[in-house]
Design a protein that fits this description.
Helices cover 25% and strands 35% of the residues. The chain is α+β, with helices and mostly antiparallel strands. Helix 1 crosses helix 2. It is globular.
């Protein structure tokens, strides 16, 4: 994994000692509201930091002073298509850090990794996420109706949710 740098951010591999910083945002129910997992305990966050430290699909997104404020997931699939996702500490929402970090990974993918296409998925209720995708030039390619569930109701029935699918081709990308 290549470390990436922007005007305000440094994106690096996770370190085994990043557990407390992961806990700062993955323990926040508002932050994980649309994720396929519940809020983390400190022990779970410490284990997740260890797991991510060996996983090249996760970038730890840090301010220039080293403060870990979020992560970008970026994984290669078939046909030179990459999937991107992101989660950021709520204390840093609204300052453009997520857009800046995601944009750095997208630029790296198209200029260095020779990616053909980048895709992303989000819950339609997650307005901030799909607005970020559109802001960086991704296009909404469709709405998948009731295609996924992460949780079940009291009777054990799946709680289905829709998904927006976004994409960006290399020839569409503008620095």
């Amino acid at each position: 994994m290549n470390n990436l740098e922007t005007e305000r951010l440094y994106l690096r591999s996770f370190e085994k000692t990043d557990g407390p910083a992961l806990y700062d945002y993955l323990s926040d129910e508002e932050v994980v509201k649309y994720e396929p997992y519940k809020a983390f305990s400190m022990e779970e966050a410490e284990q997740e930091a260890i797991r991510r430290s060996g996983n090249p699909d996760f970038y730890a997104v840090c301010l220039k002073d080293g403060t870990l404020i979020g992560n970008v997931y970026f994984s290669k699939g078939a046909f030179d298509t990459w999937m991107i996702g992101y989660v950021f500490n709520r204390s840093f929402w609204g300052h453009g850090y997520a857009s800046e970090g995601v944009q750095a990974v997208v630029q790296h993918a198209f200029t260095t990794l020779d990616a053909h296409r980048i895709t992303a998925l989000c819950n339609p209720e997650n307005t901030a996420s799909w607005q970020l995708m559109e802001r960086i030039g991704m296009r909404r390619e469709g709405t998948l109706k009731k295609n996924v569930f992460f949780w079940k109701d009291e009777q054990g029935n799946p709680i289905w949710q829709d998904t927006y699918e976004y994409g960006l081709l290399k020839e569409e990308y503008r620095v």
